[in-house]
Amino acid sequence: MRLALTASPAGLRGLLLRLMSPVAIIAIAQLFGTSLWFSANGAADSLMTTWHASTADIGWLTNAVQLGFILGTLSLSLSGAADRFRASTLFVYSAIAGGLFNLGFAWLADGLVSGAVLRFCVGVTLAGIYPMGMKLIVGWAPERTGLALAQLVAMLTLGTALPHALRLVGANLPWQVIITASSALALAGALLIGMLGDGPHARNGNVSVPTKRVGPILDAFRISRFRAAALGYFGHMWELYAFWTVVPLIISRTSLASAYPTAGVAGLSFGVMAIGALGSLVGGLLSQRLGSARVALGSLGLSGLCGLLFVLVAGVLPAWALLFLLAVWGASVVADSPQFSALAAKACPRDAVGSALAIQNSIGFAITVVSIAGTTWLFERVGIDALWLLVPGPVLGLAGYLLSYRSADT
């Protein structure tokens, strides 16, 4: 399964590598590919009007993507495909398929049911983009995984925020055109990875696939340091995607939208989510000095504190202070993600990195289904107080990491 474009280093691949570093190429492709993730959320206001959808319905469109991602990552992990096939090949075909399913959502869906089915299919394809992007990073830059993965997650964060920016720029365009732009970006990402290929440190095709695959994959959780990283990641995931889903709702339910009418809900939502890219990059740089564990735990604690403060003081803070707190929350809520992934990748055997990261992603995104559904359902009923539901994630993530890590030293 070798793409023709990667066959000759002196060809397009060589030209591309002269223009950009491999990590930068992967990060940009990740930005383009993951723009599919929240493309429907960028058009949420139009969908609520056209399809008479509620806030909870928009949450379920997001959850359809999460469920598809869970199925996709489980399939990649339990089948061994994540480690038997070239990560670049899986990325390319997944990005192409995701772009096509996203186009189908834009132009063929006529209601919540058909829309959810197509969003589910987009989620399945994202399983070949996000985890395989992480595996590509390990194959190209294993010696600086924490910093490189921080760049990757920064691009994922911008990718998820991008539909809100597209909506702001194309405010007068039909929502279908905005979603189509995400598909075009995904195809561009496929082209970039098709030209780049796998790195010199990639290990593929040497993974045996026993009849019962679940046991060997779950054996990674017997490694205390992998388990610690995974539990911290799970607590982070409880908070992250539910937060991203309700950011537009938070802005519309507080004084922010009226205080900053020029930016509007779309512009402010993009800013709050996109600043997570800066948080991820800063976290990556700090990890070179402090280590991934300290950065991950510090970020998780800070995001939990921001969530707690927000629900306690949102009603009394002036708009500028509220926006500042929301920006700090947006920056810290994602900065721990690449560091937990780096810790997990370092803790498990090199020839099982793809499967281990895929199963960690799968469980993490299963957690997001519950937190997104619960938070959006509560938001319709109690408003900002629904954010109390996000606070246990960081608390339990910190506790799970520290308890498991201590058991590794005893």
How far from one another are the termini? 45 Å
Number of domains: 1
Approximate shape: globular
Report helical residue fraction.
over 70%
Describe this structure in words.
The structure is a single chain. The chain has one domain (4-201, 213-408): Growth Hormone, Chain: A. It is mainly α. The protein has helices at 12-19, 22-33, 44-50, 55-79, 81-84, 87-107, 112-126, 130-140, 145-169, 175-196, 214-218, 224-253, 256-259, 264-290, 292-313, 319-335, 337-347, 353-382, 392-408. α4 runs antiparallel to α18. The protein has 19 helices and no strands. Helices cover 76% and strands 0% of the residues.
Index terms:
disordered N terminus, mainly alpha, Growth Hormone, Chain: A, 410 residues
Give a concise summary.
This protein has one domain: MFS general substrate transporter like domains (Growth Hormone, Chain: A), CATH 1.20.1250.
What topology does this entry show?
Elements: H1 12-19, H2 22-33, H3 44-50, H4 55-79, H5 81-84, H6 87-107, H7 112-126, H8 130-140, H9 145-169, H10 175-196, H11 214-218, H12 224-253, H13 256-259, H14 264-290, H15 292-313, H16 319-335, H17 337-347, H18 353-382, H19 392-408
Helix pairs in contact: 2-8, 2-9, 2-10, 4-7, 4-18, 6-7, 6-8, 6-10, 8-9, 8-18, 9-10, 9-14, 9-17, 12-14, 12-15, 12-17, 12-18, 12-19, 14-15, 14-16, 15-16, 15-17, 15-19
